[in-house]
Design a protein that fits this description.
Layout lengths: L1 E5 L4 H5 L2 H9 L3 E6 L4 H6 L4 E3 L7 H8 L27 H34 L3 E4 L5 H9 L2 E5 L5 H11 L11 H12 L7 H4 L3 E3 L13 E3 L23 E5 L3 H4 L8 H8 L5 E5 L2 H4 L9 E4 L4 H6 L3 E4 L3 H9 L4 E3 L6 H11 L2 E3 L7 H13 L1 H15 L4 H15 L3
Parallel strand pairs: 1-2, 1-4, 2-3, 4-5, 5-6, 6-7, 8-9, 8-11, 9-10, 11-12, 12-13
Length: about 425
């Protein structure tokens, strides 16, 4: 069958799609990955066939600052309205706040990411006629193209399903009948349904099914059809450095705070210099991956530390006794499949809630990135190294993830779902 995968151009989101794309391709299916023009090099470097659609866009942060000049980095802390409803008590939700949240994010995120590619994606889908469209859960151009071309479609999650759960809780609330536009997201998508001559349905927001890469102990579920799939790490094209091929002489601790903080936003929330200084007294080998923009802010590096611009995370985590990270789903799950305890310093979007779930499972500790001191980080890492329960729980999580169906195993289930959902 023909499979069209699509995402707006963010590396961390695309990287989570690559293993399933490879599995589909190796099973003999024709796979294309569509995104905006400048992102096609990233797609082809993953060994996949890229489709350039639409035009390149400004970063969402630039547009958000234009619309709301008063906002700052602190506004990124945790989930915004309406998606914070997924992590809150349903009895305490406010319909108007969720409506306003959908309206704000529609204009500062969803339209910004989808509009530049939407028309050309529909045109391509109508020409190529895919059987299945798999889409990143906020790339709404994907289900629109699927409906317009007669394909089945499903979401491919990269983290907890805050999108599906928040949507379910919004629909369960009683709207204000006096408001002229009670559902901004549905209203926007319905306009495209009319344009391309198909009926609006909620699957434009939550998919006909959803591929979920998290194990039960971390998963967040709505009343939707989920297809569980084992997370498989993809670290882009890489070479394992010589020093990483040798076992460390002392326990190795990695510090990696993600690429989004520096690629998209203004830098790390945690005081990196303070953190490194505190590790100078620990009997460990520290490996810190630090973007060039942040490396220049450091004035000193302890003797027991390597500070490098990038190291492939999967082989690095396999060699570690503990990993300090931002609770980005790709980083946290890659560390989890290696059975390594983690210290999380979450801040942005889904990170605090995902970190909370790791901590509840027992394989991680969590400190707020905006307030954590280097001393607190050092003490937490010492606990991870000294207390065996963290290793026991990390091993249990590794087994839980390993028991999920592999991407190769999921391919046949996707074929069945196409038969069930594709019109005609």
């Amino acid at each position: 069958m023909r499979v069209l995968m699509t995402t707006y151009p963010e590396k961390t989101l695309f990287y989570s799609m690559v293993p399933l794309a490879w599995a589909l391709r190796s099973a003999g299916h024709d796979v294309r990955v569509a995104s905006q023009p400048f992102f096609c090099d990233t797609i082809t470097r993953a060994g996949l066939t890229a489709v350039s659609v639409g035009r390149d866009r400004r970063r969402p942060t630039e547009r958000m600052m234009e619309l709301d000049p008063e906002q700052n980095e602190d506004d990124r802390e945790g989930l915004p309205d309406p998606y914070n409803a997924a992590a809150r008590d349903p009895a305490r939700l406010d319909w108007a706040a969720m409506r306003d949240g959908y309206d704000f994010l529609l204009h500062t995120w969803h339209k910004l990411e989808n509009f530049p590619m939407l028309a050309e994606l529909v045109t391509f889908a109508r020409q190529w006629r895919p059987d299945l469209v798999l889409w990143e859960p906020s790339t709404y151009a994907g289900p629109i193209a699927a409906k317009a071309s007669g394909a089945a479609h499903g979401r491919l999650l990269w983290s907890i399903d805050v999108f599906g759960v928040a949507r379910e809780r919004f629909l369960a609330l009683t709207p204000d009948p006096a408001h002229e536009r009670p559902d901004p997201l549905a209203g926007w998508l319905e306009s495209y349904a009319r344009r391309y001559d198909f009926a609006y349905d909620e699957d434009l927001i939550t998919g006909q099914f959803t591929v979920d890469q998290l194990p039960d102990s971390l998963r967040m579920k709505a009343d939707l059809e989920y297809v569980p799939m084992r997370y498989v790490p993809y670290n882009a094209t890489t070479v394992v450095p010589d020093w990483l091929r040798r076992p460390p002489d002392r326990p190795r601790v990695a510090v990696t705070l993600g690429i989004t903080a520096t690629d998209v936003f203004g830098g790390y929330k945690v005081n990196l210099q303070d953190l490194l200084d505190q590790f100078a007294g620990l009997d460990v080998e520290l490996v810190a991956t630090v973007a060039a923009s942040e490396r220049g802010k450091l004035t000193r590096v302890p003797a027991n530390a390597r500070v490098l611009p990038w190291v492939p995370l999967h082989p690095l985590a396999q060699s570690c006794a503990a990993v300090v990270n931002h609770a980005g789903p790709g980083t946290a799950l890659t560390t989890a499949i290696c059975g390594v305890p983690q210290l999380h310093l979450p801040w942005d979007f889904d990170e605090p809630e995902l970190s909370r779930r790791f901590a509840t499972q027992g394989s991680a500790l969590s400190l707020d990135a905006g307030t954590a001191t280097g001393e607190q980080v050092r003490e937490a890492v010492q606990r991870l190294l000294d207390e065996p329960d963290f290793g026991v729980r990390a091993a249990a999580l590794r087994r839980e993830i390993g028991a999920l169906p592999s991407p190769n195993s999921v391919v046949q289930r996707l074929v069945e779902l196409v038969d069930a959902h594709r019109p005609g």
